[in-house]
């Protein structure tokens, strides 16, 4: 394993950011290569500790000559967001200088060629970071972007061109659900990983062996040793299943039995009033149309001071907010319905 340090120039003289990159050289050039990164939203740490638990497994595989495809690992992908604090609270989702989500604005290249990346010399620090992450990841057969939600089940975002071919990956990781998407107008990192291959010749696209996904590792507070070890085992199984690593001691995963649904089936349930949220449901609950999902206490102590929220259709509660204070219009939860939502959103679900 080799470690290098990437440096990103800041927006003023004397300011720069750095992050480590770990590389394992594969022994078989025909084997799939893999790129894993965590904490693009810098406060989302389940993926960071999963990679920490994965590294000894990779070291052992390397020592035993079992790493076939080259691996690139970036445990802290966002040093800019990692350094952002405002009034003592960490702010890792948006770049404070540009007010841009760190997982938006990635260049969506027309072909898998880093020479097509825009010149960010006169851009902002977050644009330079995004360009470098695309450079590091482009060309790998397996690209995993590790995130988490507020409170939720473990699930994946997968482009429709890779499903159901990636069902083995979902099974290997042991996730509860898969959300399928088909368009990206916002420039997510996952979009930057898969969109360049959509119009490429079949011998370049290799969609049958390609893996690109945003991994949502449950909730932002689900950071502990047992979960990290379990998630690391899932990542390791995926690398074995897809041939980047050989391990004859691992049994083949069974079929994926979790939920798979198009993005358009999700109801986000925007709050009609601001106030305190009293949830009646939690992630993993199955609900029927008309079931009460939450109550918003907007004028406490007064008659009519509560507003109840009901399920618009049958479905599964995938996530909910970790905060219990809500603004009017802010989304309360993700309900994966059995049919298309009457309020279906295309592209990214949240800012």
TrEMBL record:
Gene3D superfamilies: Zn peptidases
Chain ranges of the Succinylglutamate desuccinylase/Aspartoacylase catalytic domain: 31-191
The protein's required cofactors: Zn(2+)
Keywords, comma-separated and alphabetical: Hydrolase, Metal-binding, Zinc
Annotated InterPro entries: AstE_AspA_cat (IPR055438), N-alpha-Ac-DABA_deacetylase (IPR053138)
Pfam families (UniProt xref): AstE_AspA_cat
Protein name: Succinylglutamate desuccinylase/aspartoacylase family protein
Lineage of the organism: Bacteria, Pseudomonadati, Pseudomonadota, Alphaproteobacteria, Hyphomicrobiales
């Amino acid at each position: 394993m080799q470690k290098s340090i990437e440096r990103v120039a800041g927006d003023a003289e004397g300011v720069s950011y750095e992050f480590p990159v770990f590389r394992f050289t594969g022994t078989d050039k025909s084997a799939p290569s893999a790129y894993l990164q965590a904490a693009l939203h810098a406060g989302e740490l389940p993926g960071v500790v999963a990679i920490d638990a994965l590294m000894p497994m990779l070291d052992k595989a390397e020592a035993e000559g079992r790493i076939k495809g080259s691996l690139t690992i970036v445990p802290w992908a966002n040093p800019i967001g990692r350094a952002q604090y405002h009034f003592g609270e960490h702010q890792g989702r948006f770049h404070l200088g540009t007010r841009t989500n760190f997982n938006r604005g990635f260049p969506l290249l027309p072909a898998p060629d880093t020479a097509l990346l825009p010149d960010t010399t006169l851009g902002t620090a977050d644009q330079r970071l995004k360009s470098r992450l695309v450079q590091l990841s482009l060309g790998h057969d397996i690209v995993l972007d590790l995130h988490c939600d507020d409170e939720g089940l473990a699930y994946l975002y997968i482009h429709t061109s890779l499903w159901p071919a990636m069902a083995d990956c979902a099974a290997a990781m042991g996730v509860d659900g898969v959300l399928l998407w088909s368009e990206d107008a916002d420039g997510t990192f996952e979009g930057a990983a898969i969109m360049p291959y959509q119009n490429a010749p079949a011998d370049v696209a290799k969609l049958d062996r390609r893996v690109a996904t945003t991994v949502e590792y449950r909730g932002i507070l689900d950071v502990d040793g047992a979960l990290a070890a379990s998630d690391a085992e899932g990542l390791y199984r995926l690398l074995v299943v897809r041939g980047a690593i050989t391990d004859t001691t691992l049994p083949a995963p069974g079929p994926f039995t979790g939920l798979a649904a198009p993005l358009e089936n999700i109801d986000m349930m925007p709050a009609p009033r601001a106030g305190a949220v009293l949830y009646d449901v939690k992630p993993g609950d199955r609900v029927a149309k008309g079931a009460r999902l939450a109550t918003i206490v907007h004028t406490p102590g007064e008659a009519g001071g509560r507003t109840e929220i009901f399920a618009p259709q049958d479905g599964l509660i995938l996530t909910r907010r970790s905060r219990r204070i809500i603004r009017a219009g802010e989304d309360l939860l993700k309900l994966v319905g059995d049919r298309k939502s009457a309020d279906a959103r295309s592209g990214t679900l949240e800012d």
